[in-house]
Amino acid sequence: MAEKSSGSRGGLFGAGGRFKGGTDPIMEKFNESMSVCKRMWAQDIRGSIAYCKSIQKVGILTAEESATIVAGLEKVHDEWASGTFQIQPGDEDIHTANERRLTEFIGPLGGKLHTGRSRNDQVATDTRLWTVEAERDILKDLATLLEAASEFSRDHIDVLMAGYTHLQPAQPIRFSHWLMSHMAAITRDAERLKELIPRANQCPLGSGALAGNAFGVDREFLAKELGFEGVTSNSLDSVCDRDFVAEFLMWHSLLLIHLSQFAEDLIINNMLKCVSMDDAYATGSSLMPQKKNPDALELLRGKAGVALGRSVGLLAVLKGLPRAYNKDLQEDKVALFDAVDTVKDCLAIATGVIVTMKPNPKMLMKALCPEMLATDLADYLVRRGVPFRETHHISGACVRLAEEQDVSIDTLTLEQLQKIDSRFEEDVLKVWDYEQSVERKSSIGGTSKARVLEQVENCIAFAKTL
Q1: Backbone angles phi, psi at 174, to 5 degrees
Q2: Is the N or C terminus of the chain more exposed, i.e. has fewer CB atoms within 10 Å?
Q3: pTM value?
């Protein structure tokens, strides 16, 4: 007499096979991943349709059986797409759920689909397909951000602002130059993301549980059917390789670090009234009526820390795993899906902040101070043949004199300057011009108008390739 199970194992792993009884209900909840991996329903069905065709090619299925299975899978697809798919107890993951529903549609024939296939190579395939689609989608979001920021920079090309190092006044720059400096980092992020896709876009399907496929399926056919660029080289590695997830998590950490730096800069400039944020990206205080807090920027800054945690967390999961598949790998998708959602949200927020923010030219100019032109003063003598190391000290002496007299350096008279160095001539007083200062920085990447506009056009051109 068969023993009664104490809990269900689902339709695919019921008692009577390897197991005498059911699982502890707590274990069922602990073990299931359906609540997470159901996001890959479309990829799972795509993979199953391709695999169905591949086992028809090697004679496991007749043409009629293959057509019936494909039609059944399309019905399952339609239920997911219309929101009518009903998840049942025992649907441990997206693979068992789809196979269970397929069998309900077409009967025992559905049991042939899994011939030679394991959930190990199945989940690896689904996750790669999902990741590549997400990465390509994010590239479009990056393009939107880069184009929006570039156009904003072009529209505000004549606005000057203070440039800082160590949060101390350094040199005058263009506001557009500052914004494009952040887009230079985002451009590198986009380049890196493009480089990730070919490594992720390799087909593991046909690797079986770990040792390969016993029925000689054509893995190159599977790769072509699913749009992969190639096939993975080793079945053992194929089912446990999550480098492509780890790479994406590390990539998203760096992207969010760059967005965090951008947010911090804007928070400071917002505090100084140099840039105002649109109401759409700010919130108020529950107590203080006057407050307008840059919460969107603060959240961008905060989410970078969580992103770092996701990346380190998955690496810690991977570091001690033996070959091949282990259930620890189920944790990869929690981090992956959260990371993709966060990236898309952050890029949308950053784009919205940029296109709606308003630089305040008056306050940005107010933040400029003549001491920022001390290097221009040194350069003045360099152009007259004086070694820079000497002119650096001379200009420093002028700064010190102005501080000792408690005056602005640009108010020092020619006579005072000549007492420090006799090579100063009357035209030295033209040094105290912020516009001329930025225009002198005319090498590639500099803050002159022509060079910033060049950066803008290059960035837009790059964005159009994404």
Answers
A1: -85, 145
A2: N
A3: 0.93
285: annotated active-site residue: yes
Q: Please report which residue ranges of 90-174 form alpha helices under DSSP H.
A: 94-106, 119-155
Cα-based distances in Å from 172 to 150, 153, 160, 369, 378: 20, 16, 7, 9, 15
Bridge partners of 160, per DSSP, are: 174
Note the pLDDT of residue 464. 98
DSSP-derived secondary structure letter, 159: -
Q: How far is CA 425 from CA 63, 226, 315, 378, 413, in A?
A: 93, 74, 63, 13, 11
Options 118, 253, 258, 285, the catalytic residue: 285
As beta bridge partners, residue 276 has 358
Quote the percentage of the chain above a pLDDT of 90: 91
CA distance 247 to 245: 5
pLDDT digits (tens, 9 = 90+) for 86-135: 999 889 999 999 999 999 999 999 999 999 999 999 999 999 999 999 99
Whether 166 sits among the annotated catalytic residues: the reply is: yes
pLDDT score at 27: 80
- From the candidates 166, 286, 422, 443, which is the catalytic residue? 166
Pairing of strands 202-203, 230-231: parallel
Chain segment 363-382, per-residue pLDDT in tens: 999 999 999 999 999 999 99
